[in-house]
Design brief:
With 78 residues, the chain is an alpha+beta fold. 49% of the residues lie in helices and 21% in strands. The chain contains 2 helices and 2 strands, in the order H-H-E-E. Strands 1-2 form a two-stranded antiparallel sheet. A hairpin with a 2-residue loop joins strand 1 (59-66) and strand 2 (69-76).
Length: 78
């Protein structure tokens, strides 16, 4: 199984599709984080709401190592 994973990684690194896959993973992760933060704060990004529980306080950058390569994430601070 390890040989299969190494072969997949080698193939992905040689392919232009690797960038697309990393972008898709990053986009999906960002959307999930935004939805979770929206649920925690009681309002979406930039939305004014009397039900708002906490405020956002910028983002912190973090690299996420995946099988498709490194994905840069912007994690919202609360």
């Amino acid at each position: 199984m390890t040989d299969d994973m190494m072969a997949l990684r080698g193939l992905m690194e040689k392919s232009a599709d690797a960038d697309l896959l990393r972008e898709m993973i990053g986009y999906g992760a960002q959307r999930l984080m935004e939805l979770e933060v929206g649920a925690l704060t009681g309002a979406a990004h930039g939305e004014k709401s009397p039900e708002r529980l906490v405020q956002r306080n910028a983002y912190r950058d973090r690299d996420w190592e995946t099988r498709a390569g490194t994905v840069g994430l912007r994690i919202p601070k609360l």
